[in-house]
């Protein structure tokens, strides 16, 4: 999965992810196809820049109305939201984004300070001799530390600030001063360039479904619940069929019953699942594993003395059988399931 780390300049004119490329990247994130990380410093920068744009635009609006009035042009002044209300909407937007599973706002750590002061003194990137970029140093340190601590791969720094972050001769490579922190990052200079390079791969059915199913977490517990809710009748039918064919001679450790007996299920309970795995084929997964089934079984022995055919077998007791049922079924994009198949059933224990 691609991990996108956003710099401020990518969203300067698009803090609401409205343009085509940013909007598509956010849609990929919401769909679980990639992860977006953004520093709280980036959000503060965007908020301040957005506030400045609002104030300027409001002033321009007021000046335009004033100038038109001076020209004796009648204007009906529209009631519009205040700057404060727009900023509340901005805060609510990013608060909502932060609740998305694959969107994460990262806070900088105070322990970064010593390292950043050292970089500033010795003019190590992202500092240089012409300017002091404290915020860029904090953003990079936050991103590189998070990527290293969480063992992320496929990390992309989305920024057009190549002078501070990149090698002088290759704008796609992190500067050597910054590689000491992390070698995990590729640099892409615009959202459109990311879409152009990776959209065809991200949108393949297999990639899309793989990310979808990873987000669901196909665990033993999850599959066990599916089987209980959707395939318990299949399990019952298969166990009954197994009991009809079961013979004491099949039990490895001794024979407890006479040879002319029958087993009849009286109660069945699906306990848990083991060995769950899956294989993705285009936009479908085949899930397989083993479900443990507890079954109360009535023992019917042959009746040599009987009055009619209905008395051919008599109940001689009851035991609890534990079965291992090996299965597979199809799993689809809308969390629907079909074609439950039992590969084989074996007796685990008899109590």
List keywords for this structure.
single chain, 28% strand
Plain-language structure description:
- The structure is a single chain.
- This protein has 351 residues and is an alpha/beta fold.
- It folds into two domains: 2-203, Rossmann fold, CATH 3.40.50.1010; 217-350.
- The chain has helices at residues 20-30, 40-70, 83-97, 113-122, 134-149, 162-165, 176-179, 191-202, 205-216, 220-230, 232-245; strands spanning 2-6, 34-39, 103-106, 155-158, 185-188, 261-281, 284-302, 313-332, 337-350.
- Strands 3-2-1-4-5 form a five-stranded parallel sheet. Strands 6-7-8-9 form a four-stranded antiparallel sheet.
What's a concise summary of this model?
This protein has 351 residues and is an alpha/beta fold.
Q: How many β strands by DSSP? A: 9
Report the structural category.
Answer: alpha/beta
Shape: elongated
CATH architecture of the largest domain: 3-Layer(aba) Sandwich
CATH topology of the largest domain: Rossmann fold
Total tally of structural domains:
2
Mean pLDDT figure: 82
Q: How far is the first residue's CA from the last residue's CA?
A: 48 Å
CATH class of the largest domain: Alpha Beta
Counted by DSSP, the helix tally is: 11
- Largest sheet, described in full? 5 strands, parallel
Spatial order of strands in the largest sheet: 3-2-1-4-5
**Unreliable residue runs:** none
Give Rg in angstroms: 33 Å
Helix and strand element order: EHEHHEHHEHHEHHHHEEEE
| CATH homology superfamily of the largest domain | 5'-nuclease
């Amino acid at each position: 999965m691609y991990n996108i780390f956003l710099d401020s300049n990518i969203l300067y004119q698009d803090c609401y992810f409205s343009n085509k490329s940013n909007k598509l990247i956010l849609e990929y994130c919401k769909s679980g196809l990639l992860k977006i990380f953004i520093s709280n410093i980036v959000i503060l920068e965007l908020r301040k820049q957005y506030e400045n744009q609002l104030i300027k635009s409001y002033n321009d609006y007021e000046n335009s109305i004033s100038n038109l009035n001076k020209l004796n042009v009648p204007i009906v002044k529209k009631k519009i939201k205040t700057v404060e209300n727009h900023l509340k909407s901005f805060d609510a937007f990013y608060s909502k984004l932060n609740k998305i599973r694959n969107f994460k706002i990262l806070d900088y750590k105070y322990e970064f300070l010593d390292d950043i002061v050292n970089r500033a003194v010795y003019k190590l990137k992202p500092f240089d001799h012409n300017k002091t970029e404290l915020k860029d140093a904090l953003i990079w340190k936050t991103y590189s530390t998070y990527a290293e601590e969480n063992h992320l791969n496929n990390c992309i720094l989305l920024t057009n600030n190549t002078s501070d972050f990149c090698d002088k001769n290759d704008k796609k490579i992190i500067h050597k001063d910054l590689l000491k922190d992390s070698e995990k990052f590729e640099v892409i200079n615009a959202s459109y360039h990311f879409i152009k390079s990776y959209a065809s791969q991200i949108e393949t059915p297999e990639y899309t479904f793989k990310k979808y199913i990873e987000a669901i977490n196909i665990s033993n517990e999850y599959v066990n619940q599916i089987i209980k809710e959707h395939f318990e009748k299949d399990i019952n039918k298969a166990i009954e069929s197994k009991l009809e064919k079961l013979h004491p001679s099949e039990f490895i450790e001794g024979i407890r019953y006479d040879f002319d007996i029958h087993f009849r299920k009286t109660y069945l309970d699906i306990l848990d699942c083991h060995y769950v795995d899956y294989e993705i084929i285009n936009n479908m997964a085949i899930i397989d594993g083993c479900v443990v089934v507890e079954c109360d079984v009535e023992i019917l022995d042959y009746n040599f003395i009987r009055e009619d055919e209905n008395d051919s077998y008599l109940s001689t007791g009851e035991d609890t059988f534990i079965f291992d049922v090996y299965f597979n079924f199809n799993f689809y994009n809308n969390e629907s399931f079909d074609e439950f198949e039992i590969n084989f059933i074996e007796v685990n224990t008899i109590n």
